[in-house]
Amino acid sequence: MKLDGVSSRTIWLDSDGWSVGIIDQTVLPHTLVRLTLKTVEDAAHAIKSMQVRGAPLIGVTAAYGVALAMRADASDAGLDRAVRFLGEQRPTAVNLRWALEDLRATLAPLAVDARAAAAYDRAGKLAEDDVETCRQIGVNGLRLIADIAGKKGGRPVNVLTHCNAGWLACVDWGTATSPIYQAHDAGINVHVWVDETRPRNQGAALTAFELLQHGVPHSLIADNAGGHFMQRGDVDLVIVGTDRVTANGDVANKIGTYLKALAAKDTGVPFYVALPYSTIDWRTDRGADIPIEERSEDEVLRVQGKLANGDVGSVLIAADGTPARNPAFDMTPARLVTGFITERGICPASREGLKSLYPEKTSAAA
Fold first, then answer.
1. For residue 10, which of 31, 32, 38 has the smallest C-alpha distance?
2. From 232's CA, which of 58, 62, 213, 266 has a CA 20 to 30 Å away?
3. CATH assignment of 139-357, given 3.40.50.300, 3.40.50.620, 3.40.50.2300, 3.40.50.10470?
4. Residues annotated in a binding site for substrate
């Protein structure tokens, strides 16, 4: 996708051929900073601090983190340590575990002196696979938007999003945004309602930023306004991403997703979840079994933004001493989801629906 008119990705190998470049997403949209990861500790910090975030990008960053670790210590103990260390950084997004297990399986049978090169090769392939997977999610989701556009006779198709499931959450294209970008590029009149997504405001800071960069019409709204616009008939379709989908079709996504799904159900608005195959957790049967990350209360008590003097900083929005709770995700039961948009097609949000697209999988095996 575009940054200042230039095609860009969220992660890349630097010119030295081994260090890893990323966009620091904690300072967007006011400042564009590119960082260099040189150690497994750098990669772990980027994941934990949310310099990189979004389930697909977390997985690819972890893969490159293993590659960086193999440059320092490619022994069996070094591989085990890197996989364990990176896996501890964030508990909810299943792509992290998926990527680390993939790297372990790829590297463990190899000679120690072959592991670093193989790790870089595999991480690069996972990145390219993510780009094509997200592009194909867009191809499949485009027909939903095109169908609504045909019925509206040229009037804007209004899509509501939550959090950031855009190209900044992946390597390119995004999941929930891929159908939107492809609709826009195909000349369909599409408009996006962008949830601000408290407490970290990823909708405001990231989704609105990337839609603006690509020229997609959009409006930023407060999280609690989504139901209002649905009641008024101003939302044609909700598309969100996900950090994990369980074998029965339950969806773990950014906190507030559940409330959007309830509002969509009540108002008859289709509610779709866009996801790649790597986000399906075939080992976990239902959403209640997913660990929900709880982050620092400071994310609730403070808001980051551009200050009057032009600096980027944070301000306290509650009285000193106010306690807060900060669950990062919530669980949307499958019964509230109209369907899944995947790289293989669209299916009902159910065990049977998932198996119809992935017949080779079972709930007991990844």
1. 32
2. 213
3. 3.40.50.10470
4. 53-55, 90, 202, 253-254
